[in-house]
Amino acid sequence: MSRIYNFSAGPAVLPEEVLARAGDEMLDWHGSGMSVMEMSHRGKEFIAIAEEAERDLRELLAIPAHYKVLFLQGGARLQFAQVPMNLLRGKAKADYVLTGEWSKLAIKEAQAYCEVRVAASSEDRGFTYAPAQEAWKLSADAGYVHYCSNETIGGVEFHWIPDTGAVPLVADASSHLLSRPLDVSRFGLIYAGAQKNIGPAGLTIVIVREDLIGRAQKGTPSVMDYKLQADAGSMLNTPATYSIYVAGLVFKWLKRLGGLTEMERRNLAKARLLYEALDASRFFRSPVEPRDRSRMNVPFTLAEPKLDDAFLKGAKERGMVQLKGHRTVGGMRASIYNAMPLEGVERLVEYLREFEARHA
Ligand SMILES: *Cc1c(COP(=O)(O)O)cnc(C)c1O
Predict the structure, then answer these.
(1) According to the model, what pLDDT value does residue 329 have?
(2) Which residues participate in catalysis according to the annotation?
(3) Which residue in 66, 95, 136, 353 has the most C-beta neighbors within 10 A?
(4) Do residues 27 and 159 both lie within one domain?
(5) Ligand 1 pocket test: which of 72, 73, 77 has the largest number of ligand atoms within 8 Å of its C-beta?
(6) Regarding beta strands 169-172 and 145-148, do their DSSP bridges make them parallel or antiparallel, or are they unpaired?
(7) Do both 35 and 92 map to the same domain?
(8) SS3 sequence, 228-257?
(9) What are the C-alpha distances in Å from 220 to residues 16, 20, 111, 134?
(10) What is the CATH number of the domain that holds 290?
(11) 173 alpha carbon to ligand 1 midpoint, in Å?
């Protein structure tokens, strides 16, 4: 067996240990004689798996007791609609911060439900930075303030938590949740599609302050009503059972390696190594403001875009795949999520040097 280094933005690399464990348990989970895939979501085995996953996630993020943890479906993109449907609570407006492709889509979707005000934007410089708090024009009558805390495509990460006063703060944290410790109490709601940094596709995690739910707008489908899902333990309909199970194994892996403080240390080391190599190069370039660079998604360009294909081909020959940048921005992008080992980044950095020496 040989594993490649997969720099995909999502679905993305998972810890080898987790995949091996899922493999071992595939036919017979803990003597049940069943695969997790075959279990009733209402049976005692699966209930135990889901409860343990929630407990471990709560422990990892130190989620306060007055927050609900929901295991939903529909991806982060469904949250673009589900958030306004649930959190406007009779208000007509919401504030959004525009920092890239994902926040742009969130805004577009929300416009069907409310008046969206763009409180801050980084469009003036091609979405290459995070607008400072002083530049945010917030409105006191907004139902909530939404931002994307890590723009997966542009590679811009907020390394600080915005202060929105009494107005609940909502974060699309899809591509960096669990990459570092997070003060959940600063947020009204945090959501993340699992397939970036948490587990398989099909699962969306929502962490929401209890007092904000229960006032969904009329016409909200019941599976999209946070309160109804919270009351039903995220099992109003059949949840993504296997994805929850694998995410649970990822939570255990994180706990074993020392939790999110240790995870952050490792992620910082990987990101530093890669950015230092890009900054030292005269051939490769990171377009993002150094202060706001993502530790998870690292876009970069070649001095000569006509060499892009040769770069990707050489990477593949060296066991590294999915380095092509998003179609909307071009260039390259290396996603170096939790499960990407340091060795993968070392190999990439070595290849950057080799390629530059040959072509620059
Ligand atoms: C991938 C991604 C999404 C979309 O996720 P889906 O699960 O495909 O709906 C939304 N926001 C961010 C920040 C993402 O990285």
Answers:
(1) 81
(2) 102, 172, 196
(3) 95
(4) yes
(5) 77
(6) parallel
(7) yes
(8) HHHHCCCCCCCCCHHHHHHHHHHHHHHHHH
(9) 40, 40, 16, 35
(10) 3.90.1150.10
(11) 9
Ligand 1 centroid to residue 194 C-alpha, Å:
9
- State the pLDDT at residue 2: 83
Which residue has a Cα nearest atom 13 of ligand 1?
Answer: 174
- Total number of domains in the chain: 2
Domain assignment present for 57: yes
String of DSSP letters for 31-88: TSSS-GGGS-TTSHHHHHHHHHHHHHHHHHHT--TTEEEEEE-SHHHHHHHHHHHHHS
Alpha carbon distance 142, 300 (integer Å): 36
Query: Is 275 within 8 Å of 298 (Cβ atoms)?
Result: yes
pLDDT block averages, 10 residues each, the chain of length 360: 93 98 98 98 97 98 98 98 98 98 98 98 97 97 98 98 98 98 98 98 98 98 98 97 98 98 98 98 97 98 96 98 90 98 98 95
Q: Is 106 in the same domain as 248? A: yes
Same domain, yes or no, for 245 and 191?
yes
Q: 1 in a domain, yes or no?
A: no
Q: How far is the CA of 337 from the centre of ligand 1 (A)?
A: 14
In a domain, 5, yes or no: no
Q: What is the pLDDT at residue 33?
A: 97
Is the domain of 245 the same as that of 167?
yes
Residue nearest to ligand 1 atom 8, measured at CA? 75
Q: Return the structure tokens found at 6.
A: 């997969």
Q: What is the pLDDT of residue 200?
A: 98
Q: What backbone phi and psi angles, to 5 degrees, belong to 241? A: -55, -50
pLDDT of residue 298: 98
How big is the CA angle at 337 (ends 259 and 194), to the nearest 5 degrees?
A: 80
Which tokens sit at 108?
Answer: 């577009």
Domain presence at residue 45 = yes
- List CB contacts of 279: < 8 A, sequence separation 6 or more: 286, 290
**pLDDT tens digits for 35-78?**
999 999 999 999 999 999 999 999 999 999 999 999 999 999 99
Domain residues for the domain of 168 are 16-256
141 and 111 in a single domain? The answer is yes
**Closest Cα to atom 5, ligand 1: which residue?**
76
- Residues 46, 62 share a domain: yes
CA distance 287 to 297: 12
Q: Do both 216 and 328 map to the same domain? A: no
